[in-house]
Amino acid sequence: MAWSRLLLSLAFAGLLGACTTVRYSDLEPGSFTGSLFVMWIGEGGSSGDGVFVFVPDPKNPLTFTRPGGKGPAAVIKPRMMYTDGGSIPRIAQAFNGLSPWGYAPAYMIHDWAFVARHCLVDQNPDPRYAAMKDVSFDDSVRIIGEAIQGLVAAKRVKADDVAAGAITFAVGSPVARSLWNAKGACAESIVSDKDRAAAEAAIPGSSTFAKRLGGPTPAKIVGSVTFSR
Questions:
Q1: Contact residues for 180 (Cβ-Cβ < 8 A; gap 6+)
Q2: Domain residues for 40?
Q3: What is the DSSP string of 112-170?
Q4: What is the pLDDT of residues 58-112, one digit of tens each?
Q5: How many domains does the chain have?
Q6: Which residues make beta-bridge pairs with 53?
Q7: Cα distance between residue 44 and residue 46, in whole Å
Q8: How much is the pTM?
């Protein structure tokens, strides 16, 4: 589930009330290294353009370091997960940066915070979620703002306080808070063995499922972003 974009959709639908006191303009930039791939796995439902998976580069995985390397989850390395580039309303795309993949690395970091939170709430024992256990809801809002500030500082996106402010507003809303504490959401966030195998077939080393499933059809890489070390 692409939580960042779902929350943006709700914000532009006018469904949000009062939100967190975290302000985008008060946040310092974090920094990115590594690479990410966005893969198209197959057809989706009526609400989107298909099923997409975020895949960290197995040789140089996407990594986000919070400002000064401090705070809960000071260094974040998201794992493979589902995402969705089609859920931002068309009207919102008039704002620079709100196109489906405009702030993709920042969305991925925030989405991973939600995936980890849901699996921790559901007491999933997988150790990959443990690094995120001290992240609060307000931390998740700060993290996406720091990530956007980092993209601006790295000149990967243009500074746009309207777009960035709208994103921070959406992810800090009461709706977002209720989603943050949702139970039973972990299972739907976990990439299926079949889809992991398709990712592995496209990028060797990204999972261990391709051989087990006997040569699956490779996923289609539809986007990639690389940051220098």
A1: 114, 117, 137, 140
A2: 3-227
A3: HHHHHHHHHHTT---GGGGGGTT--HHHHHHHHHHHHHHHHHTTSS---HHHHHHHHHH
A4: 999 999 999 999 999 999 999 999 876 444 333 334 444 444 456 788 888 998 9
A5: 1
A6: 39, 82
A7: 7
A8: 0.82
